[in-house]
Automatic annotation (TrEMBL), chains A, B:
GO MF annotation: an example: DNA binding
Keywords: Cytoplasm, DNA-binding, Endonuclease, Hydrolase, Nuclease
Membership in a protein family: Belongs to the NucS endonuclease family.
Lineage start: Bacteria, Bacillati, Actinomycetota, Actinomycetes, Propionibacteriales
Record-listed E.C. numbers: 3.1.-.-
Residue ranges annotated for the Endonuclease NucS N-terminal PH-like domain, each copy included: 2-102
InterPro entries, sorted: Endonuclease_NucS, NucS_C, NucS_N, NucS_N_sf, tRNA_endonuc-like_dom_sf
Gene: nucS
Protein name, entry field: Endonuclease NucS
Statement: the UniProt record of this protein carries the keyword Disulfide bond: no
Principal location class: cytoplasm
Highest taxon above the source species: Bacteria
Record function comment: Cleaves both 3' and 5' ssDNA extremities of branched DNA structures.
Compartments where found: Cytoplasm
Organism of derivation: Nocardioides albidus
Gene Ontology cellular component terms for the protein in this record: cytoplasm
DNA sequence: GTGTAAATTTCGAGT
DNA sequence: ACTCGAAGTTTACAC
């Protein structure tokens, strides 16, 4: 890992064309040759970058300034990517041996929400019981397949944030499931769209299609499950 | 901008819970208090981070090691975010004044593709002429509304990469447009799904719905338009 | 490897 | 301020 602070100008050409005027920035060159150009603001996204695999070549511009050329192998059907960094003045330059990182351990994403709802399906609708998780269909697995008190099949799609594409996804599943006589024996398969937060447009579309929306309280579910000991 | 190289352990709690075991990493602390934890690989995304606005407080752990606590104000309906960085050994520490960045200038995204196709609709289908760009509907604007040689209305959806959700979007527009007698006077509104690249599944879904797929050659369109002088 | 869905997405435009 | 759609998205996972 090499860290450089320099006044530089950056030009990118590849999937698009982009230009950064001369200014002072941080350049991070990772062991795999990837390069990140950061300013003193914004979020974690660099102003410009080059993803691995790529190679950095140090050269000189016409007027004798240092110029880095970072090139990546062209993906099929794409223009080859090039990042050109022209360095006007270097204020800092240091290299560090970091070693391999053990990596991130995560908890709390959709998968976990699915586990919790699989254990407590009745929080979605009274009388709901689980048939199986990841119920397979020809176009992909349904998050939860349940049965309600009347014996009707209920397909549940779970999202952290409920947006329009999640409703589309559930609609595709319902179209398919309702062609299966084994499931529709006692009546049409119902849909429940469950999310921690449901966007207004998604709600409108869901209700227009007869899909029930359920806003899920993640913390309350966690409480039901007493999973505090899973935390670090 | 402060750059630190240190052996550290990182714990995040907020929208999810995440943990990074003790290892050597680069810590970037930006002027707005945001923090990035980078390893010597991966893409531009940090292993862990805290987005602005947030504040860093330097303290000590129980055993006397340096500990940074980064806190962000809780977003509505969310758990407050906290990033705890326990520093075992610091190998590098430097601060730099970068100033404000003039920012990135871009070219070549979907908007530009839409401009080019608006100028040359006939490249999508022979005889096609533009009615208007961003044609408004109740559920959002159609990228291009055109008319074909026979006087039929044609709705065009433009994507850089054509995936299944783009076809869904166009389908929703067509459903709606086909209820408007002003548009369907001479026959049903047709759909064209235009993209630089169309995924096989998206193509199948589109054709199943009677939507025409058009693969767009961006460079060729650019050539028609003679826009080389727009480049840097 | 290809394809699909999620992300602590981030970013920008429009209302 | 909020909402929606795009991103040089990146990342993880299933087939």
């Amino acid at each position: 890992m090499r860290l450089v602070v320099a006044r530089c100008q950056v030009d990118y050409a590849g999937r698009l064309t982009a230009h950064l005027p001369m200014a002072t920035r941080v350049l991070m060159i990772k062991a795999d040759g990837s390069v990140l150009v950061h300013s003193d603001g914004g979020s974690y996204k660099p102003l410009n970058w080059m993803s691995p695999p790529c190679t950095v070549r140090e050269g000189q511009s016409d007027d004798g300034r240092v110029e880095w050329t970072v090139t990546a192998k062209a993906a099929k059907g794409q223009t080859p990517d090039t990042l050109r960094i022209l360095i006007d003045e270097m204020f800092h330059d240091s290299s560090h041996n970091l070693g391999i990182d053990p990596g991130l351990q995560k908890d709390g994403v959709e998968k976990h929400l699915q586990e919790l709802l699989a254990e407590h399906p009745a929080t979605l609708a009274a009388g709901l019981t689980l048939v199986r998780r990841e119920f397979p269909t020809a176009i992909g697995p349904v998050d939860l397949m349940c049965r309600d008190g009347a014996g009707l099949s209920v397909a549940v799609e779970i999202k952290r944030r409920g947006e329009i594409d999640g409703v589309e996804q559930l609609t595709r599943y319902l179209d398919l499931l309702n062609r299966d006589p084994l499931l529709t024996g006692k009546g049409a398969v119902r849909g429940i769209f469950a999310a921690q937060e449901i966007k207004p447009q998604a709600r409108v579309l869901a209700e227009d299609r007869g899909i029930t929306c359920a806003v899920v309280d993640y913390d309350a579910l966690r409480g039901l499950d007493n999973v505090e000991d899973r935390l670090f």
